[in-house]
Amino acid sequence: MSEGPLEADVCVVGAGAAGAIATFELARRGVRVVTLEAGPRYDAAARAGEARRAARGEAPWVAPVRELLRYTTHGSVAYDLGPRRVRAVGGTTLHWEGYTLRLHPDDLRLRTQYGLADDWPITYEDLEPYYVLAERALGVAGVADDPSGPPRSAAFPLPPFPFSHTDHIFAEACGRLGIGLQHLPQARNSIPYDGRSQCRACATCEACPTGAKASVDLTHIGRAEATGNVTLASGAVVVRLDADGSGQVEQAVYADARGVQRTARARVFVLAGGAVENARLLLASRSRAFPHGLGNRNKLVGTHFTSHPAVDVTGRVERAVHPYRIGFSTAMSRQFALGPDRLRRAPFFFEFLNSAGLPPHLLALTSGLSGDAVQRHVAREFGHTLGIRIYCEQLPDPGNTVDLDPSVTDHLGMPVPRLTWNVGGYEHRGLDEAAALATKILQGVGATDVRTGRLSVAAHQIATHRMGRDANHSVTDSDLRMHDVPNLYLLGSGAFPTASASPPTLTIAALAIRAAEHIAASLRSGVGKPGA
Ligand SMILES: Cc1cc2nc3c(=O)[nH]c(=O)nc-3n(C[C@H](O)[C@H](O)[C@H](O)COP(=O)(O)OP(=O)(O)OC[C@H]3O[C@@H](n4cnc5c(N)ncnc54)[C@H](O)[C@@H]3O)c2cc1C
Ligand code: SF4
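Output (structure tokens, whole complex):
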């Protein structure tokens, strides 16, 4: 790396889902990009090491600089961010499950349809062509078997994974209750695709040793670098963005892997650090022109922090259900994620688990037994638990926030993010109804000892810099360009005005492709700070 400032047309902060995709989409259009990633670069050829850690039940992606993961949490529910993000080239897609659902047209117009929250400033029709591109780029396996699924202009690029043994058990009970069970679309190779191997069902998906699960280091970073237009610096922690007198960003200030402060200059800047770090960086970038943080004239940055409240419902069955044979789920129901019931309770999504209950080694370790009694315990208990995971939509609440903790800093002296997260009555009503329904399904398959687990949360951080038409009530426009800072774009699920009940990353990818297209076109027409 050169000792002077890095210079490019576009500086991207973060090489996770949004940043890697934007980097590639810009670079393939001839745009010169410098991408700054706080975490390390893991060697894909050595992924068996991380997979072994996952198999042992350890966290496979431990940041070498632990301070990078520092945060504090407040509010009535502790939002445990630690295991819910990865800081590395590839970002959290190194660890994700890969479930890739499109949002439904109604998810984007809650205000118009139900008088709730806000509409998105774009429609499903605007997003649809980008969903097609995102599904192809990530390699999504699926089939359009959801009768209420969103309209599609192209088939899934890969065939679906077949229903599992447990899915067939659930399907019987769901059929009797009138509940549709569909294939769960996922960015995982059901057949060899895009130079990556077919899934081998080895069940360490937190770190896939074969490359069958899409992670953007595999799908996008190599290709982006092969264009010759990209400089990617890993171990480069951006600590602030500096704006000039005209209110445009002129440089990103970052600490390199040795802790030395450096700068990157560009015409356009793209923040793709995830909903938490994007908000943190904006709030930390205070100046005379932006005393409340960059682009935070209306004090909206970091507000409305949203996720997917979740619970698991499990039950014990006498028959053997053969869990842990594959590392992921293959069936879902979105039947209750749509429709006018949204007026009275949160919509919810069912994931039918292929691996519920403890695996054998944890049954043994937690039994407190020794000798032959351990073996008898594991033989009796293993493989007799079925489970349904429930996620619900959380409505954006201005009181749920990401801000700067005034009393805790990281190793670079930067205030850590402080998460304040509460779950309201709307969400609790949705989860209660969902748990009652899941209980009925489990009882329908003959389960006993049916239990609803404690309130948890999905690893989805959403809506800290929401897009919208009105500059007084949103942070970016529909192209994800900041209303207040014309050469700064904010990518990722922080831009979602509402969360839906579905996982966010396919939509993050679609929006990143769309924003990159817009940025490349704007650069051609002379937008951005000249001279970088
Ligand atoms: C266990 C798990 C399972 C999941 N399963 C699913 C799923 O099935 N489906 C789904 O849709 N989603 C899933 N997710 C969520 C999904 O991984 C995220 O939605 C997605 O990765 C977010 O993309 P992103 O680019 O916004 O952020 P990330 O992928 O987290 O990338 C952000 C990157 O920016 C870097 N960065 C941040 N701040 C700075 C800074 N100041 N300077 C430099 N770099 C910075 C970070 O180090 C990181 O590498 C899962 C997540 C987890 C943890
Ligand atoms: S089960 Fe498939 S996707 Fe999961 S780790 Fe194994 S090969 Fe990768």
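Residues 425-444 form the longest helix (20 residues).
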